């Protein structure tokens, strides 16, 4: 049996009793073991994520099933059958660390590929769209999903006031209040990259793409009542289900697809293909299967590997890039900045975050919690005369043509925020529509009547039956004109 030590390897002679002046105390400051235990305990909880605070994760493998070299030169995609280690973190978005897995909420679907060219983070959700299209509105939106600063309670008034004044939310809120807002578990839902990204091939040609992950377990959702019941019976049901299934050898898996748009076609498409509140029509850009994703290994320590896992869409590899998607552009900064605040400037050195299949050669030095060799005595600047790493123009992206004057453009002018939400409503069968409208009325009915009327105006523009069904449940006439 090993001897207990302090963090610094000093053997501990007594871990049961504090060092005191006599049997009744007081405690002496020289009890360094007590001080270390208390000080560490006070710091065991790092700040929780502002969003995606409650989550679960697992390791697995991504396997290529189609030749995609015509569209991208990414090395981890360059051969059918090639496998890459991954880590996938699922989460609820708005809930706090102790919230229930069954809450009505989007689900995070954040995937880290440990490729031979460095880590590639694909940070998505279980929905193909989002509530807002401009990052300026993201903090405002999230504030409405959190707690009222007056009461410290969740507030339907805040939620629906924002929704009704922001018509671009209509598509995503229609998904949120459908059965898809309460998935039965992480294994039984699809995932999406959501944003538009770019693939670049060896010839320097750019293609716009969207990622889709289709569950092989089949989609399963709770009804609203079932979700409420599960939240009371087992608030950690999705976390338990994921861990248990992998432990039992029932490895969850997804088929991986992309939609591909040639770069030149973006300008002529019927709407902005970089708008995060919109989906690309599958008849225009059909799904192309490219791979298979399987989760087959649970973390050995939840805190070290799930709680400290950090993803950023800024982490891309050669052959994969960004797009003019405004929300994506905002996230390129915001995610890494959040990690530096929450975990420290050296969060990339943590085992779950550092590359597993690629070397790291950088000039980053120092900072709190630098626990490797800190570059030793090698130069910490570039250019230098001592053989330090250098940039390589082979990995530069081709130029992206941009145009327009620098200004603050009203993102709502000229945008159709109602058609795709109406299309989704009409795709649902009668029972699904009824549940959607029941769920909306249950929440919207807690907001002031003036906000109810304003929101009904948006439903009316999406589909008159949508507005009429919700209005009937609210006993409010759908006469409002939506705010633009």
UniProtKB/TrEMBL annotation:
It is an enzyme of class 1 (oxidoreductase). GO terms for cellular component: cytoplasm. Heme binds at residue 335. It catalyses: 2 H2O2 = O2 + 2 H2O. Decomposes hydrogen peroxide into water and oxygen; serves to protect cells from the toxic effects of hydrogen peroxide. The keyword Chaperone does not apply. Belongs to the catalase family. Residues 5-390 form the Catalase core domain. Keywords: Heme, Hydrogen peroxide, Iron, Metal-binding, Oxidoreductase, Peroxidase. This is Catalase. It holds the Pfam family Catalase-rel. Its cofactor is heme. GO terms for molecular function: catalase activity; heme binding; metal ion binding. GO terms for biological process: hydrogen peroxide catabolic process; response to hydrogen peroxide. The active site is at residues 52, 125. It comes from the Bacteria. Its EC number is 1.11.1.6.
